[in-house]
Every structure is written in C-alpha cells, then in structure tokens.
Design goal:
The complex is a heterodimer of chains A (about 140) and B (about 120). Chain A has about 140 residues and is an alpha/beta fold. Chain A has 5 helices and 4 strands, in the order αααβαβαββ. Helices cover about 40% and strands about 15% of the residues of chain A. In chain A, strand 2 (about 80-85), helix 5 and strand 3 form a beta-alpha-beta unit. Chain A is globular, with a radius of gyration of 14 Å. Chain B has about 120 residues and is an alpha+beta fold. Chain B has helices at about 15-25, 35-40, 50-70, 70-75, 80-95; strands at about 1-10, 45-50, 100-110, 115, 120. In chain B, the strands form 2 sheets. A 3-stranded antiparallel sheet of chain B has the order 1-3-2, with helices on both faces. In chain B, strands 4-5 form a two-stranded antiparallel ribbon. The two termini of chain B are about 15 Å apart. The mean pLDDT of chain B is about 90. The chains are: A alpha/beta (about 140), B alpha+beta (about 120). The interface of A and B includes residues 22, 40 and 136 of A. Strand 4 (about 130) of chain A pairs parallel with strand 1 (about 1-10) of chain B.
Chain lengths: ~140, ~120
C-alpha cells in the first residue's frame, strides 16, 4: 500500500510526464509562462525576484525545486544568468533539458537530479539562490 | 536568496491549523516561522512581502482556465483526475480566502565572508 508521500511523488511524476498544448495555453493565461509550471509563481513575481537579487549576466543562480525549469529557464533567457536547476523528479528535469536545448539555453542552464536537503554542489558556488513553492 | 512559500497564517487555532494543512499544498506546515529559521541560519536583511492576494487570484485563474478548457482536459486527464484537481484548487482557494493560508516572498542575504580574516560583515 503506497504511503501519502509516495502517492504525492507519483502524482508529481505523472504530471511532469504530461505535455499538451492546452496545458501550455492555460499556463500562459494564468502565470505568463510556458515551461510546464502549474504553481503560483507568475512572470511578474519572477521579475520581482530577479530585481531583488539584482540578477545579471554574470551571476550564477541555483534554482531548487525547478520542476520543468520554471523559473530557471526564464532567468537564463531574460537575464543571461548561468543557472543550475535542481529537483528530484527526473521526468520534470527531462522536459526542462529538452526545452533548454530547443531554446538554445543549454550552455546557460544545467539540470541536476538532487534533493535540496543533500545538494551535490560545492558551498559558495552561487551568488543567488531561488526556490518557489518548493517546501512548500 | 529569494524564495516564495505557502504557509499557514500565524495564530491559528488547532482546528484552523488542521484545515490549513488539509487544504494547503504538501509540506505546508513549518516547525518555526520562516523569519526565525532564516535568522538562525545566518541570513540577514530579511524582507517578507505578502503575496497572498495574488496567490488567491492565481488559484482562481487556474480553476477558471481549467473550466474554460474542460473538454480538452477531460480527454487528457480523465474526468476523475480533473474533478479531483479542481476540487483541491477550490478547497485551497477557500482556505486562502478564509485567512488560513498565506503566501510570502522572502528575500535575505548572507553576510559577505572575507577570506583574509575569515570574518563576515
């Protein structure tokens, strides 16, 4: 019998495996993005975060709990940041990686399968850290 | 660092907290206020910006968007899964509007470390 946590993880994996034009259309209308996010962080809030962190092209940013790459891909596309985007579900990271390649952002965005509790990253590697509704 | 998080409103009764946790996203409960946890981890200049109103509006926009595209979503997700997800979003929206859940943008920084002296400023 699966536990609540297992069910929750499976549900997230199933969701990340879904790709459809209608979901993207709704996402554009609701949060102003098209990276397969289904949360509450709007494009305006991503811009607010970027302004508070003074993001620019020279910065290295860590996005914990990136899902399919929101807002990591947006930071790279809009501000030229180098971003490491990490999360646990591989299904979401795969979608994000494909999108990064498609948009020519794969030189700027790297995807890492890791939990925020045990990041395989050297301390002090980033100037900025972001997470949006991850913990939650 | 900047992050956005959903959390139960401070000062809820035990029954209200239970409803906030039930209707909120997974892991919505935290052991201590975020400001306190940030301070104990060494962060300074902590800013907390309430984005609950936008949270409620965004949640409603998801419900409206799904309603508008219901036929296509039934084909994609199936009736049961769609109804389940809509019900969850509506329950969360109600919890937000009843003041049980909040969403906050936190920004904070770690003091700079000077390698020569190993001192933070």
């Amino acid at each position: 019998m699966p536990t609540g946590e297992q069910e929750s993880r499976q549900r997230i994996r199933d969701w990340y495996g879904l790709e459809s034009d209608v979901l993207v259309e709704i996402e554009r209308e609701v949060i102003g993005g098209d990276n397969g996010a289904n949360g509450y962080t709007t494009r305006a809030q991503v811009d607010d975060i970027a302004a508070r962190l003074r993001l620019d092209g020279g910065m290295r940013v860590l996005d914990i709990g990136t899902g399919r790459g929101w807002p990591a891909l947006c930071f790279a596309a809009s501000f030229g940041c180098r971003v490491v985007a990490c999360d646990v579900p591989i299904e979401g990271l795969e979608v994000g990686m494909r999108r990064a390649r498609h948009d020519g952002l794969d030189r700027l965005v790297g995807f890492v399968a890791a939990s925020g509790e045990a990041l395989p990253l050297r301390q002090g590697s980033f100037e900025a850290l972001v997470h949006t509704d991850t913990l939650c | 660092m900047a992050f956005i998080t959903i959390h139960p409103t401070e000062g809820l009764s035990a029954a209200e907290l239970e409803r906030a946790i039930k209707n909120g996203p997974p892991e919505v409960w935290a052991e201590a206020p975020h400001e306190e946890m940030l301070a104990s981890a060494g962060f300074i200049d902590v800013e907390a910006i309430d984005v609950t109103t936008a949270f409620s509006q965004t949640q409603q926009a998801w419900v409206d968007g799904w309603r508008e595209h219901e036929d296509e979503l039934v084909d994609l997700l199936g009736t049961h899964a769609l109804e389940e997800r809509k019900a969850e979003r509506q329950a969360m929206r109600s919890a937000i509007d009843e003041g049980l859940l909040r969403r906050t943008l936190f920004a904070a920084r770690i003091p700079e470390i000077h390698a020569d002296k190993g001192q933070r400023r």
